[in-house]
Amino acid sequence: MARELAVVLASGGLDSCVCLAEAARDHDLALLHVNYGQRTEARELAAFGALADHYGAARRLVADIGYLKAIGGSSLLDPALAVETAGLPAVGAPVPSTYVPFRNAHLLAIGVSWAEVIGAGSLWIGAVEEDSSGYPDCREEFYRRFAAAVDAGTKPGTRIRIETPLIRLDKAAIVRRGLALGAPLHLTWSCYTEADTACGVCESCRLRLRGFAGAGVEDPIPYAPRGA
Amino acid sequence: MARELAVVLASGGLDSCVCLAEAARDHDLALLHVNYGQRTEARELAAFGALADHYGAARRLVADIGYLKAIGGSSLLDPALAVETAGLPAVGAPVPSTYVPFRNAHLLAIGVSWAEVIGAGSLWIGAVEEDSSGYPDCREEFYRRFAAAVDAGTKPGTRIRIETPLIRLDKAAIVRRGLALGAPLHLTWSCYTEADTACGVCESCRLRLRGFAGAGVEDPIPYAPRGA
Q1: The CATH number of the domain where B70 resides is what?
Q2: Model's pTM, two decimal places?
């Protein structure tokens, strides 16, 4: 029997890999990757391809929203702005420079359009509110409100749930959940700055490494030697 | 004194021109045009440029979301699907084939990202719910809900209003309002199918012509000869 079709946003990172593993439990998969001119675009796309191959997903869509680079406003997009490497943001700290203004709304809009055309009943995104970088477009409340907009802005017969299975997990719980689901964490890529071996010091590497440390397992991807 | 900055979505059509004229009354303008692989993309872009020149808007952004064409599902994007020319949709009729699934959410997301980066306090879109084609993403309720998602998904200090000044107007009222504001309606383009002289029979041309007829004025743009 055919299973319900799910569109899953897959950046190629740790969180989206575990989100994908959750969706794969009882859905047929349509995998969506979005390039937006970020520093490590090619490396993330390679990780997306490896994950899609791993899950045998025939339906894949790679969308390009390079206009976000023209809009700017983020150190992930603008070589003139430095990516923070000094540590993790404290609670109540300002939104980090790596925030790409309202980016996740673009990812959701693309996913909803695709889901409406192919008849998928849900759209999955590995957003994390707790233990994250404090991006406003990763808040659970944002997803709840966006889902209400989807109900009003699509055809009367369209029903697309927005699924955020990681939203309340911390990074250690995400790593543990991924291991429990047999997710191919070795295929993922999280580093914001490099494309061969992860830097280990950017905000994204630090969050990832803290997650593996908290779960008591070693991160299977290679990191650049420290203190050389 | 500098006026508040407004991002205005301008397709180059009649509605967006009147929306632009409304915004221009008391805002500095940042004009946004989006190409999405529609049949008359080049003609619409030319109309956008003419409108931006008319209003002396220095800030302009043209964003490309060609991935919508890959997603498909609309006769505006897919040459294999016919554009309806038989008349205007009746109340309660199914959503027409020209509906581009959830398209306006993409336009809003781009506008919000740009507004957040440049510090604009509002985003304007010439969506029309009454007397329109019955697209779900033109409903007032969709904009209300999307605005709530914007509040949750942008930085704590960001406040961006979504302005839909035409949402409850019929086409004749839009034409009259445009004339009252001195909007350059002769520079606009609405036809879904042609790029030199408007066809006069597609859904968009019919709505437009009905609006001018209702306002008792002649449409200043050229139409192809009928019944030849």
Answers
A1: 3.40.50.620
A2: 0.93
